[in-house]
């Protein structure tokens, strides 16, 4: 719809720009009105849409689960309780399957990751112009609905997981054990630089791959929705084709969003399990 | 797509969510699940126990029934024996009573016949005296021959 007002390139760029709040070049604070402005704000800026949607969805998730947790009865479960228990059992069995040590934090962490990422990804299934169009009417220049297409969100999560991995590595193996793991294998103490290089890459790859896998998948999925949306302005035949394609891609995307949430959760469990292992 | 403060904001948000989930969401749900699991297991165990008890009770009931049957047939046998005994006793008593009645009847008959005979004898003596008196009229003095008449009366 807004493609009539912009060229295709502008339409795509518009959809890929976060609503950024920060300090303008002239010193005043406010929303960025172009990609360049947002870029010039540097690090001291915040993506209002990413924060807003992720917090909204996270609070929604915790609200419903907390409601069930408060009224959790041992009798016959009600509909919502049944659903929540089903997810909890699913996550619990995943954790029990791949996490061998004992840590009461891992399962709730996995649950939060799974549901939160799933909900953020789920926003991808909304027709891509609805919420940005609404925001445009309210005078907001940009609106990116899917928080997981913002690397800030995915790296935010993966770096937190990474911090936990390092924390538990040091807690379980001691600082010496952790450093030893990084430097003394696989080639023994005389191959220390090579060891450090290999193990360092191995270590750093964990958060980077976690964040980029999720970001990449969601970004690509969103991009395809945008490209399909452009077809809607290309005449009746193209619009019809676009409609069919959008439906087909949305159906396929349901699989992707669930799978990405599951992969992020499972890898987090595995990484934390490795952090708890003495030898691997 | 710029890396900015959102990164830190998201990390903090994420950490808070995880903390909340760990503190207020996960434990109650999991403990409810565990409790339900235990409840179901207990229920199944109780059902098993109930079944077992039912079997035992059925066995006990059939045993009791069997015993009762035995006892009942015992009682019936005893009762029959006792009834027979009573009948026998009654027969004996009846027989004795009958005998006694017969004896007393015989005695009475004897007495009656004796009394009749006495009466008859008296009458005959009177008749004889009257007859003899009529025949002898004057010659025989009833007072003078009383001892003779008495002897005749005794002979009859």
Please give the share of residues in helix of chain A: over 70%
Tertiary shape of chain B: rod-shaped
What is the number of strand segments of chain B? Answer: 0
Q: Which structural category do the helix and sheet elements of chain A fall into?
A: mainly alpha
Note the total helix count of chain B. Answer: 2
Strand order in space, largest sheet of chain A: 2-1-3
Structural class determined from secondary elements of chain B: mainly alpha
Helix and strand element order of chain A: HEEHEHHHHHHH
Specify which chain pair forms the largest interface. A-B, 53 and 32 residues
Spatial gap, N to C terminus of chain B: 171 Å
Strand element count of chain A: 3
Percentage beta strand of chain A? under 5%
Order of helices and strands of chain B: HH
Largest sheet composition of chain A = 3 strands, antiparallel
General shape of chain A: globular
Mean pLDDT of chain B, rounded to whole units?
Answer: 90
Domains of chain A, number: 1
Low-confidence stretches of chain B: none
Can you tell me the residue ranges of chain A where pLDDT is under 50 for at least 5 consecutive residues? none
Structure, described:
- The complex is a heterodimer of chains A (280) and B (156).
- Chain A has nine helices and three strands.
- Chain A has one domain.
- In chain A, α3 (48-71) packs across α5, α4 packs across α5 (106-122) and α8 packs antiparallel against α9.
- Chain A is globular and about 65 Å long.
- A three-stranded antiparallel beta sheet of chain A has the order 2-1-3.
- The mean pLDDT of chain A is 88.
- Chain A has 280 residues and is mainly α.
- Chain A is 70% helix and 4% strand.
- Chain B has 156 residues and is mostly helical.
- Chain B is built from two helices and no strands.
- Chain B is rod-shaped, with a radius of gyration of 60 Å.
- The model of chain B has no long low-confidence stretch (mean pLDDT 90).
- Chain A binds chain B through residues 16-18, 20, 22, 38-39, 41-47, 50-51, 54-55, 58, 61-62, 65-66, 68-70, 72-75, 77, 84-85, 88-89, 92, 104-105, 107-109, 111-112, 116, 150-153, 155-157, 159-160, and chain B through 1-11, 13-15, 17-18, 20-22, 24-33, 35-36, 39.
